[in-house]
Amino acid sequence: MTLAEENGPEQRGDDILAAEYVLGVLPAEERQRASARIESDPAFARMVDRWEVHFAPLADAYPEVEPPVSVRRAIHHRVSREAAAQVDLWSSLVFWRGLAAAALTVLVLSIAMPYMSPPAEAPREMMVASLAAEGSPVKYMVMYDGGTGEIGLSHVAGERAAGKDFELWMVEGGKPISMGVIPVGSTMHMPVSPDMREKLAAGSVLAVSLEPSGGSPTGLPTGPVVATGNLRNI
Q1: Quick one: which of 94, 127, 195, 199 has the most CB atoms within 10 Å?
Q2: Rounded to whole angstroms, how far apart are CA atoms 34 and 41?
């Protein structure tokens, strides 16, 4: 069940649904229904547009990834092959000369390729979570990038009281472990310590508590837990 289903329209369900649509975490059927609503419901479409703008800063820390050389080479090979198929190669003397040269090139590349090809890049681990709690106005959307070791947070709703801070926790075996005080702002990034990165996985529980300014003085939550949710793979 998604956060939008849990909260319902009376608790900003459409707004959360739009956010989850932009993040790409909705199940296929829900995403299809949301796509249809964008075409027929201007108000919902504006929510989606607003979330696209809102989440854009979260991507700033994630560098663009170049497609593998093998993919570009395969595309070039396919385009060249289809273009060549349109020419009457069999009647051309140039074809036979070119074929000999191409065969030599293929032979050279087959020998050199193992030494030329860069190692395949490991897939980046990306996870998201919707943090909310019944009876609490506080809502956060979280994105974790295993490649950079950073958590990106988007503040959806609910303000901290004067002299208070929100603190992010990971709950492991029923024990909360602090991940740090959440900076003030609509979107922000928090580094994750190496030991915490090893523990974060799909299904991990994240929680937000309300603490004195600067965070919990005890290393455990001292205030109410105002939002919680599970990480999910993208």
Answers
A1: 127
A2: 10
To which residue do tokens 């036979």 refer? Answer: 96
Please, are residues 7 and 17 in contact by the beta-carbon 8 Å criterion? no
Question: Containing H/E element for 34?
Answer: helix 28-40
Tens digit of pLDDT for each residue in 1-45? 343 444 443 334 787 888 888 777 778 888 888 888 888 888 888
Distance (Å, whole) CA 115 – CA 111: 8
Q: Per the structure block, which two tokens stand in for 82?
A: 């289809």
Token pair for residue 28? Answer: 């296929």
> Where do the H-state alpha helices sit in the chain?
3-7, 13-23, 28-40, 42-55, 69-84, 93-116, 194-199
Alpha carbon distance 201, 230 (integer Å): 9
pTM of the predicted model over 0.70:
no
